[in-house]
Amino acid sequence: MRVLVVEDEEFLADMIVSGLRRAELTVDIAHSSRAALDRLRRDAYDVLVLDRDLPGLHGDEVFRYVVEQGLPTRVLQLTAAGPDGCQEPGADDRLTKPFAYEALRDRVLTLGRRARSDRPPVIERAGVRVDTGRRLALRDGRPLALSRNEFGVLEVLLRAQGTVVSGDELIEEVWEEHPSYRTNAVRVTLGTLRAKLGDPPVIEAVPGAGYRMGDGAEPGGGGTAGAR
Description:
Oligomer: single chain
């Protein structure tokens, strides 16, 4: 599960992020609305923890971006107590400050499960099609015999819609036992997955960042050296 925390109070933001990471969630942080919008344009999130009362551009503008773009991200708003703490219409949930961390964690987990249950069962890009309900994967109509981890990596990359997914994020999403990245589990699985997908390559390595699904228009997916 991937979460973006948007909070300008650094102490509170660090507390939230540290707690969610202890719960084995993948968490990014933004201290302003503009930084949050940059993150949302680049990456896909299951849950957005959003402080409404942000300096400069109001937090409601971030929420409206999520709605206008049709993002599947669930939104948990953090609001001030009193009459100014009203909830933006359509938000999934809210917490009034001050709040107990356990309450925030439980709501994030609930929203994350709802976000995942709402995901479309069939996803497709560059001729690669995955039917998560029937556990089927195809390349240009050709069935692929994939292991559990290969199928999971392919699904995560497809759902990212061309954005970069790090090796650590793949481990968080796919591997049940969360092996250390140093075991090369991701690189080995990507190698066998690429071989089964065949040519032209559609999984690209982004050195120092991770991996993404290309659109099939550019030849060559690159090697895995230096990607994380």
